[in-house]
Specification:
By secondary structure, this protein is mostly helical. It has a single domain, classed as Formate dehydrogenase/DMSO reductase fold (Up-down Bundle), CATH 1.20.1630. The longest helix has 34 residues.
């Protein structure tokens, strides 16, 4: 991985796309759960709705900027000249075709967030859009080396979706939505939504781990040696460590903080749950940043044997 201004911009925008997609997915799930809780949950529901719109807008913007950086990098020109290379990249490269799918999904998700206002039709359109984004992003990275319709691409798309659910619930819930339920009158809503957050995160995590193991085996080329001998291996190790830290925090909330909150419904225990979730969200941001760096590194299977 050569560190240049273009590569730094690509990684930064890829990280922003990861975070924005996750925020959108998490906000949509929380919005759906909160609308079932009625009037007491309205302030939190409004936060989830605003977060959904902001996240999808950020995703669209980051997609556009990333394409300019990618076009400049692929063409070997400066950023200013990268705009001129965009039509060629879109029309003549696999990356451009996959980007169109992901960008179309992002635009559709933004439209559903702006127009739908939580309606069922809008939710269906939003989730179809998210699937399109995941398929597009799964086809842009190294998974596409196995072919555009390969198992590797399908697994990577599923990994993107599962990571978006897990990370998105934690990010949107821990940083924006659940703090709005931090009153005695909304304590019951907080407990019920927190249980949904915990259960959905645990389910998504199973898929994240399964698809992550597949991607890791493929990226390492079937050998553990690249973990210590390649940049890809070093970055992957950091990502795995951050994932483990996030899992430990989620497990702490699931096994200790949430059961105690259910028993006591106290302000102190509510703060404990929210604070741990907030810390997990910060770790999740680190995971998405490192994942963007990892996607920019050459995987071990592409490196010549030593």
């Amino acid at each position: 991985m050569n560190v240049t201004g273009l590569s730094i911009g690509q990684v930064a925008l890829a990280a922003l796309m990861n975070i924005a997609l996750a925020f959108a997915i998490g906000s949509a799930l929380l919005e759906r759960w909160l609308v079932l809780e009625g009037q007491p949950a309205r302030p939190a529901w409004q936060r989830a709705q605003s977060s959904l719109v902001a996240a999808t807008f950020a995703l669209v913007l980051a997609d556009v900027l990333w394409l300019v950086y990618e076009s400049a990098s692929m063409s070997g020109v400066g950023l200013a000249m990268g705009l001129g290379a965009v039509p060629t990249v879109l029309g003549q490269t696999h990356v451009g075709h996959a980007w169109c799918l992901a960008f179309g999904g992002a635009l559709l998700a933004l439209g559903a967030a702006l127009i739908g206002r939580g309606g069922r039709a809008a939710q269906a359109v939003f989730w179809l859009a998210v699937i399109a984004v995941a398929l597009g992003k799964g086809s842009i990275g190294h998974a596409a080396d196995a072919g555009p319709f390969s198992i590797a691409v399908a697994v990577q798309a599923l990994h993107v979706l599962a990571t978006g659910v897990w990370g998105g619930i934690v990010l949107a819930g821990g940083l924006l939505v659940l703090p709005a339920l931090d009153t005695s009158t909304t304590r019951g809503v907080l407990i019920r939504v927190a249980a949904r957050v915990s259960n959905a995160s645990a389910t998504a995590l199973i898929v994240v781990v399964a698809t992550g193991v597949f991607n890791a085996y493929r990226g390492l080329g079937g050998s553990l040696d690249p973990l210590s001998e390649s940049t890809w291996g070093h970055v992957f190790t950091l990502k795995a460590a951050l994932v483990l830290f996030a899992v430990l925090l989620g497990g702490l909330n699931r096994t200790l903080a949430l059961p105690r909150l259910r028993r006591t419904a106290s302000t102190e225990d509510a703060h404990t749950f929210n604070n741990v979730l907030h810390l997990e969200a910060l770790v999740m941001i680190g995971i998405f940043v490192v994942a963007a760096v990892l996607a920019h590194c050459m995987p071990a299977y592409t490196l010549p044997p030593r």
